[in-house]
Amino acid sequence: MARAEAGVEWTVGFPDLDPAEFPMLWALTPYGDAVFNQRQLPLLLAELDRIPAACGGQWVGQARELCQVVERGTHLYLWFVGD
After folding, report:
1. Where are the alpha helices (DSSP H) in 1-83?
2. Quick check: is 7 in a domain?
3. Quick one: residue 79, left, alpha or beta (phi over 0 = left, psi -120 to 50 = alpha)?
4. For the chain, N or C: smaller number of CB within 10 Å?
5. In terms of Cα–Cα distance, which of 35, 52, 62 is closest to 27?
6. Number of domains in the chain
7. How confident is the model at residue 77, as a pLDDT?
8. DSSP label at residue 48
9. Do the beta carbons of residue 17 and residue 26 sit within 8 Å?
10. CA dist 45 to 25, 31, 67, 83, Å?
């Protein structure tokens, strides 16, 4: 198990994300869990490449690192755990 420590600032930028433009990131909520499989990671990484600055932060780099862990393994998932 690998984990990240950085949190996401939900009140700045995230409410303004367009679900058609950022469907993977739009799946993240502060209260629910979101799970990404290996096939979804390229889409998530592409969205992280173009995430608005208001939504960025330390969590983006940590999410990228966790994506690499999942990509290198088998039967692994990237979980974002809500409140």
Report:
1. 23-26, 41-49, 58-72
2. no
3. beta
4. N
5. 35
6. 1
7. 96
8. H
9. yes
10. 10, 22, 8, 23
Q: Does position 19 have pLDDT exceeding 80, yes or no?
A: yes
Residue count of the chain: 83
The residues near 7 (Cβ < 8 Å, ≥ 6 apart) are: 59
Domain membership of residue 64 as a residue range: 23-80
Separation CA 58–CA 63 (nearest Å): 9
Residue 33 falls inside a structural domain? yes
Rounded to a whole number of angstroms, the distance between the first and last alpha carbons of the chain is 19
Is residue 64 domain-resident? yes
Tokens linked to 45:
């990484």
Give the amino acid at 63: A
**Predicted confidence (pLDDT) per residue in 49-78, tens digit:** 999 998 888 999 999 999 999 999 999 999
